[in-house]
Amino acid sequence: MAEYTPYNAPLNPASFSTLAFILIVIGLIFAGTFFVQQVTTSKQNRNLVQELSGAGLASVFLGFGTLFLLLTVGIYV
């Protein structure tokens, strides 16, 4: 047992709240730009790749932001 070392997380747990805030803000910015794009662009001028990339980026940032928010409050998933 003396040769085993405890697991250390790659990120400092004290920085989870800051990381959660930053990721959620970035995700909301991408979600907002996606929403504005959907409202202001006509059906003839829409681009599927641009829509999927905007929605995908918003989803990824909001997903990781939510994960770190849960880790901040002590729900370890």
From TrEMBL:
Pfam families: Ost5
Primary localisation category: membrane
Keywords: Membrane, Transmembrane, Transmembrane helix
Xref: InterPro entries: TMEM258/Ost5
Topology in the lipid bilayer: Multi-pass membrane protein
Cellular compartment(s): Membrane
TM regions (residue ranges): 14-36, 57-76
This protein's record includes keyword Protein transport: no
Record keyword RNA-binding present: no
One Gene Ontology cellular component annotation held by this UniProt entry: oligosaccharyltransferase complex
GO biological process: one example: protein N-linked glycosylation
Subunit structure: Component of the oligosaccharyltransferase (OST) complex.
UniProt similarity note: Belongs to the OST5 family.
Function: Subunit of the oligosaccharyl transferase (OST) complex that catalyzes the initial transfer of a defined glycan (Glc(3)Man(9)GlcNAc(2) in eukaryotes) from the lipid carrier dolichol-pyrophosphate to an asparagine residue within an Asn-X-Ser/Thr consensus motif in nascent polypeptide chains, the first step in protein N-glycosylation. N-glycosylation occurs cotranslationally and the complex associates with the Sec61 complex at the channel-forming translocon complex that mediates protein translocation across the endoplasmic reticulum (ER). All subunits are required for a maximal enzyme activity.
Protein name: Dolichyl-diphosphooligosaccharide-protein glycosyltransferase subunit OST5
